[in-house]
Amino acid sequence: MAHITDEELLKLSKLSMLDLSKEEVERYRNEIKKIVDYVEVLHSVDSEGVEPTEQVNGLANVMRNDEVSQQLSQSELLKNVPATEENLILVKRVLN
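and the corresponding structure tokens:
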């Protein structure tokens, strides 16, 4: 089966901007090896003539028309927010 080297894993971690310890390299190398081995097993399965599956639970998107069912005034809507200023919703600053 596939063999993942420490160098390959370190290259992957660098590309992913991850700083891995030696213990993490060993652990993740073993985990990735198991994943790659499983993918190789899946490649060996004969899937000739099998239709691709898009979803398996039988659900379908159910869309409804976007219709106004109830109109509220601005003052009624603003009663539901924690803080307002000049008829606008006041929120915490996210950028300095």
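(Above: one complete record from the training split.) The first strand starts at residue 84 and ends at 85.
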